[in-house]
């Protein structure tokens, strides 16, 4: 299964929704709380080529975007393929 990394911040409903989907699917993931950590937020922005909103989600080294992007992949049946 591909490594999943998700940059989140506290009190973010989109982050909660994305994390819930990953948990429901039984996916192991690394959650990085970048909301109050300027260095982690800069890392997220650089890694995502400018994505400054939360969450930012990566499957392997591929940036898939935010919560809505992940939900769109899920509704098309493409998320499971990407996860392996």
TrEMBL record:
GO molecular function: glutathione disulfide oxidoreductase activity
Protein keywords: Cytoplasm, Disulfide bond, Electron transport, Redox-active center, Transport
Glutaredoxin domain segment(s): 4-64
InterPro entries in alphabetical order: GLR_AS (IPR011767), Glutaredoxin (IPR002109), Glutaredoxin_subgr (IPR014025), GRX_bact (IPR011900), Thioredoxin-like_sf (IPR036249)
Stored Gene3D superfamilies: Glutaredoxin
One example of a Gene Ontology biological process annotation: cell redox homeostasis
Transmembrane region(s): none
GO cellular component entries: cytoplasm
Entry coiled-coil feature ranges: none
Superkingdom as given in the UniProt entry: Bacteria
UniProt KW NAD keyword: no
Reported function: Has a glutathione-disulfide oxidoreductase activity in the presence of NADPH and glutathione reductase. Reduces low molecular weight disulfides and proteins.
UniProt-recorded name of the protein: Glutaredoxin
